[in-house]
Design brief:
347 residues; 9 helices
Length: 347
């Protein structure tokens, strides 16, 4: 999830576990440990391209660290001036729950989280929430704001934080329900309209759990299909050719192997205008750019060799996008209007 969500979730954990003993400092400790696992990104500038691809959401998000971190840190931190009044057991509980909820909520997204490191590099991705979902995060933020205005240890303070946290939990349950419906609908449509194709992923569209994206694979292509409970017309499939033959110069290199691992094998290749090889991970949703009439892939790497022959593979984000029309056609598609959604040119 995004950093704001992780901070809010950690602060809520701190508020629940330590607010009676520490007041607002409980939420502050929770916020700190709620974002700490994502500080693994600080190491990225010092890693080679292959290791950089594998690093984020790796060991710092693992089940091993859920238990190791509080075991090592709880006792010394309980003696810290900012934690006076909290026992070692209470600090252990705060660190454990703030750290573990961070990783577990990451597992609900499409990006993938290596919670079994260092024993396995398998990435868990349940595809239930987009990496930014305001309807999950807002109740947590509102709950914190209202709770921190109440006296420490008061019944009203406890009720407020539990009530608003429960709203986020209920929303999460709604997301699971909608994904189940989307899987049923998209699988049915694929069976009726695309022969010899397989559904490889159902995931939420950006910022919502009302619109769902199906990624369909055939031998030479991928197809995208979107489903909303408000759809009424005929389903539309958008083809994206694989063109993996473009990557022949990088076959059997560590960087391409890492990208294949990261994308779970669901990638396509393109030739950039500058001659660089572009690898696009299709698991993550694209940005629909009506101003330029195209789809813009969010996760793309531009591969090239420097003068010494080493591979450089920076990740690029879409640029020069006017997000107002992008958000408008997203909203239109949620309510079942696919007129502008399906006419954009594929990459």
């Amino acid at each position: 999830m995004d950093l704001l969500t992780q901070a809010a979730l950690g602060a809520v954990v701190g508020e629940i576990v330590l607010s009676r003993k520490l007041g607002w400092r409980g939420a502050a400790w929770g916020l700190f440990f709620g974002v700490l696992p994502d500080l693994d990104v600080l190491a990225l500038p010092f890693l080679d391209p292959e290791m950089g691809i594998r690093w984020h959401r790796g060991l710092s998000h693992s089940i091993l660290i859920f238990f190791l971190a509080p075991t090592l840190l709880a006792k010394p931190l309980s003696r810290c001036r900012l934690a006076l009044g909290a026992t070692t057991e209470q600090m252990w509980s705060l660190i454990f729950w703030a750290w573990s909820t961070h990783s577990l909520i990451d597992c609900l997204t499409t990006y993938g989280t290596q919670i079994f490191e260092p024993f396995s590099d398998q990435r868990v991705a349940l595809n239930v929430l987009f990496i930014v979902d305001p309807l999950f995060t807002l109740p947590l933020l509102i709950g914190l704001f209202l709770a921190l205005r109440q006296p420490s240890g008061s019944t009203r303070r406890k009720r407020v934080i539990w009530l608003l946290s429960s709203a986020s939990i209920l929303y999460l349950g709604f997301a699971f329900f909608m994904k189940s419906r989307a899987e049923s609908q998209i699988t049915h449509q694929v069976k009726n309209h695309l022969k010899e194709a397989r559904v490889v992923q159902i995931s939420p569209a950006p910022f919502t759990t009302l619109l769902w994206r199906g990624l369909i694979e055939t031998k030479d292509s991928y197809y995208l299909i979107y489903w909303s409970p408000f759809d009424q017309g005929k389903p539309q499939f958008q083809e994206i050719l694989k063109h993996r033959e473009l990557s022949h110069d990088f076959q059997k290199t560590k960087v391409l192997d890492a990208l294949q691992w990261f994308s779970r094998g669901h990638w396509v290749a393109r030739q950039g205008k500058d001659g660089k090889l572009i690898i696009i991970d299709l698991r993550l949703p694209e940005i629909r750019d009506p101003q330029n009439g195209v789809l813009q892939p969010i996760f793309q790497w531009h591969l090239a060799r420097d003068p010494s022959g080493h591979i450089v593979a920076p990740m690029r984000r879409p640029t020069q996008i006017n997000y107002l029309p992008t958000m408008k056609i997203l909203f239109d598609r949620i309510i079942g209007d696919s007129k502008n959604w399906d006419t954009l040119k594929s990459f």
